[in-house]
Amino acid sequence: MNHTKQIVTSKDVAKLAGVSQSTVSRVFVPGSSVSEKTKQKVFEAAKALNYRPNAFARSLTTNESKLIGLVFPDADYPIHMKTLQLISSELLRKGYSAVLIPWQIDDEDNHSIPNIFQYRVDGVIAASATLNKTLYEECEEFNIPIVQFARVVEGTQSSYVISDNYEAGQQAALMFYNSGVNNAAYLTGEVPTFTNSERLNGFCNKFKELTEKQPRIIEATYDYKTSLQIIREMIGDNNRPEAVFCATDYLAMAVMDIARSEYGLNIPQDLQIIGFDNIPQTEWLNYELTTFSQDFHRLALESVKIIVDQINNKDNRLVRMMLPVKLICRNTTRS
After folding, report:
1. Crossing angle for the helix pair 296-313 and 78-93, nearest 10 degrees?
2. Tens-digit pLDDT profile for residues 66-90
3. What region does 114 belong to: left with phi over 0, alpha with psi -120 to 50, or beta?
4. d(Cα 90, Cα 10) in Å, to the nearest integer?
5. Is the CB of residue 265 less than 8 Å from the CB of residue 271?
């Protein structure tokens, strides 16, 4: 015999509580004008019937879904999983839920997401260097607040919370100069971002100021495997750099692997390396990488605060926040 579980609706709750169906709907909308006595009757009826309000139906009434879209195309990057957890927990504390929005690559290798409007999100937090501007244009078109997390895509106009990348570049240049380096390089990925450009400019400007020499800028990819050939060419060059500042820790570890396994170089005696992000693997014995640590905990808290404020206050003003970084000295540089 097939027993089908009957779905309890707001109409059933209204009947048991002795109120109208619209009153039941208002009770489950925060801030609605319903007396405490009526609320209590509805809550007791809902509990007795094991009723759960339909979030989607409620969003049609309130025009709010209480969902924030998280766009992290490179969510497998070690620090991003922890960051997703931080953002999700903080959103939950403020009465919102997080939904991870998938990404896709088109025929021209542009990274994008499906139409953002189909997710009925109240706002978006985006953390990717690989997205094109379509996401930001869609959010602007549908009046959906968006905050860029840790990276800013070139040519976009939206709020962001980032680290002080220019200062990080200057610190890297100063460290190399103090250890006697005259020939340095900046190894970057292929996608232009404001944050990466700031890091590159801080490094190049400071190094040139100190040594009167311009560092080489070498463009690979942000992917470990596909960056290896460019790195081989860099290290195999007759004018090999004495030190390399890398846009990410993955790139820095790729440089270390090629330098040691294929060219027999000693690090940091033959080649100094600085990364960026301080992912957990940088502490592994095979790497012990000097790198920059971003305050991802505060980046997450500030991003959530901005997006929630913009949703609740209908405030479209741009917020541009920059947080300090910390240089973590390990064994890939000479002190």
Report:
1. 40
2. 889 898 766 566 777 788 889 999 9
3. beta
4. 30
5. yes
